[in-house]
Design goal:
The protein has 223 residues and is an all-alpha fold. 71% of the residues lie in helices and 0% in strands. About 3% of the residues have low confidence.
Length: 223
Amino acid sequence: MGKNTKIVIMDSAEALFAEYGYEATSLRSITRAASVNLASVNYHFGGKETLLEAIYARRITPLNEERLNRLSELENQFEVIPVERIVHVFIEPALKLSRDQEKSHFIALLGRSYLEPTPMIQAKVRQMFDEVAERFKIAFANSLPNVPPKELYWRMHFMVGVLAYCMAGNDMMRMIASSHISESNGPEMLINRLVVFVCQGMEAPVTALNDIEMSTEEPTELA
């Protein structure tokens, strides 16, 4: 019963955080939605911040594990991994997660973390992706030896950006696109198109930026 209560609390909080945001959601509203008392939340999580961490962890941990396991398989198969393979194992698990209807509230919550950044939330999410960021950075660096480290960081940053956009779903695409976008062929269609698009950017020739001064900051957030 304790396990069920814990899941009910997380499900209720996830939905409320996604709809109203972390700051605007009170523990009282969570307990009311989950039909539990405050003592249950404190017992299982200790407070709202640790509850949010648990919500992120239950979705992000399996995503990270799949990405890292599949990357390890590639490292065992290839001395130098083709860029397309690296991009694919980074993108596919995330897009499949975003198309899982049972996890739609989490995808909305993740979107809020990008569009309405809260320093505390950003720091926690970034920390959860640290190992993934480092492993994929090394893999890309080995496969793209002619791309300077700073440029590689930016290309990975843009890869994450377009992935986050696609994870936001069809509604966002329809708002911006001039024509109707259909996923009638299933998520594989979107995955394959996105992999091709991202690979073009990751493998593009390095050109001088002339008068543009590149930032010394290195983006590392990978979702």
